[in-house]
Amino acid sequence: MGAEKEGIDIGNYKMLHAEWTALGKPGKFHEWERDRHDYPELIRLRDAYREASPMTVRFWKLCAKAWDVAALQGKGAKFGQDQMLTFIRDGRHNRLVLPSGRSIWYRFAKSHVETLKSGDTRVDRRTFIGKAGGVGHMRVDTHGGKLTENVVQAVARDILFDLIMRIESLTAQGWPGRIVLHVHDEVVIEVPKAQAQQVFDDVDGMMQIAPAWGQRFIVKGEGSILERYKK
Questions:
Q1: What is the pTM of this model?
Q2: How confident is the model at residue 2, as a pLDDT?
Q3: Residues whose CB is less than 8 angstroms from the CB of residue 66 and which lie 6 or more positions away in sequence, other chains included
Q4: Could you tell me which of 47, 31, 49, 56 has the C-alpha nearest to residue 151?
């Protein structure tokens, strides 16, 4: 979250974490050998963000809990506003069903249970088979925050896709605009100069209409009329 650019020394995280794990995880990682890193400052920043964003933190926990229900119990778990998201166990995989009906698959998903000294158990890690850093696949970790990011990005993609399909339908009916590319969360439309304002107004209006599968979403866009594309 920009800590390194602000001059906070986070050290060699992977090396430190490997050493800490090899030693049997002595205490809390961010309190271990403080002279070799600045993790207490990162923890302070993290906690400040969480305090300012309680609903986001709550959603992280809901994602993680739903993952565990699917992975450990083999059951479906609905969560989120209006219960519009569902984690289900599909064979040996976790499948996150989005409001649009599309799914994100987490292959061979697991919740790794750790037994504490007290005899109680807790989920220590959540993993699935995903892409490795280079070529191939390996078991990778995820967590509530990462699952939240997956949900947000996927739903945003589905909203954009719905808009693109509506624009394509208009174009097929003789509307003067034509999509030439889309970049992340942007749609670029080529149009004769004389109809530029009309097309802009039409698209601006469409951007404020939520998809049929997500009527509770508050959607809005912004744009500009340009001679050529620019960021």
A1: 0.82
A2: 66
A3: 77, 78, 79, 85, 86, 87
A4: 56
